[in-house]
Amino acid sequence: MRGILASSIGVTCAAALALPLAPPAAASDVAAASDVATRTVGTAGVRAAFRLDARAGSRTDVRAEVPGSTQSLPLRPLTQDRATGTVLGLTPRTVRTFSLLGVVWDDPSAHLHGRVQVRTRAVSTGEWTDWRDVETHYTEHGADPDSPEAASGKTRGATAPLWVGESDGVEVRVLPEPDSGEPEDVDPVGTESDEGVSGGEDAGEGGAGEVSTLPAGMRLDLVDPGEAEAGESGEPGESGGSGGSGEGAGGAEPAEEPRTGVLTAAAKAASAANSASAANSALVPLGATQIPSLTAEETREELVALRGTELTEQQQAKKYIGPQPAITTRRGWGADESLRERSFVYTSSVRAAFVHHTASGNNYSCSQAPSLIRGFYRYHTKSLGWRDIGYNFLVDKCGRIYEGRAGGVAKPVKGAHTMGFNSRTTGIAVIGSYGSKNPSSKAVKAVARLTAWKLGLHGMNPKKKTSLTSGGGNLYAKGKKVKMKVISGHRDGFNTSCPGGKLYKKLGSVRSKAAGYQGR
């Protein structure tokens, strides 16, 4: 029965790709703030897509989405100290509205040996926050060394993204510090203002010959994740966008070229949206915003439909797999598919799951989670130069699960989450910072449910270990075979504090729960 459904959906997919594209709506320009030099990376064109009503089988046009943007502000010297070097930053200033920020630099292999602190002004109150620390160790979340993604020439070094909520003012300081060599758990909590450190607009004169220990080309990127569609909160819904993908470095066929440059950009964006949606077409109708949860029996039937010819005799006899959890699709959280590379990259299988935290702070509501994910996505693609968002899945504090990197949630999509171990693994990020704060029980349960299902698709036991080959990192040399727990923390594959000490301590519980969900 599921095979028939999958075939029907495939036919629908082909039909949807042949449909004509609606012309894009004009996006209104936003004036830049007069007192700040800003480079803006906006969305090229406006996406055009269709919504498929699965019950009626009808097609309706979907309204254009409001694009996000990135403001990039070069950091300048504030003060100089002969012992520690130059303090870079920005004095308080008004900027266009943003909700997420991070510090970016030119060389992705350069490490920031210092402390990054920011203050922001809330739009709602007009009040400035206290100083907050930004997690500086983030490069280890990237693609494997020597991989095409890492060698693209587009990647950059960066701090973790910090969610600050809707803001229109910012101040930042980057204080050099000696390299301790040991990563620390840093939660972005308020710190004392330490008056006098930032200096004024003309600070930094003199001190000729002093050498800064900070990476070259440092800038502050301010991310506006874009507006949410009406009713968006990660809840189930129906909307458009469909398409197809292939194995390996697969992707969708380009749409027929329209006659104008504007329409060409919209057509490419719509084609990308179609392909991202079609990658899940074996699970849900095209354009779905939510992949529904299934019972244990329904999931076992689906396993046969998805991987029947690949299952071993042992897997066919006893299907250890957790019930499929509900997952909000990329369409559901409002991904602008024009930001990512059009093709999908797959690995051979999924033998382990690495758990992360986003290190972006805990000051968010669950209704804001789609906005945070859009922010991470834009930060990863436009600021860091990655091909797509790095994580395969994300989980919010309310236990809702979101599709990450495009290519299909049931497929072995290769992510950029654990440098050296992105092959034959999946990366799951819990939204928040968990160095000193415990993750919610709902988030822990969601990670267990997700890993029970995802690992079960490939016959993996959450309580066992597996053998992985390092792609190169600061713990294991390239080519070294390593025994890893099937559910591991990021720090097990790389010398990092991720996923935070508090979340890492919950992984034993995650393994036990996941095995139980699989029926072991």
TrEMBL record:
Belongs to the N-acetylmuramoyl-L-alanine amidase 2 family. Keywords: Signal. It comes from the Bacteria. Residues 1-27 form the signal peptide. Residues 138-257 are annotated as: Disordered. SMART domains: Ami_2, PGRP. This is Peptidoglycan recognition protein. Residues 325-473 form the Peptidoglycan recognition protein family domain.
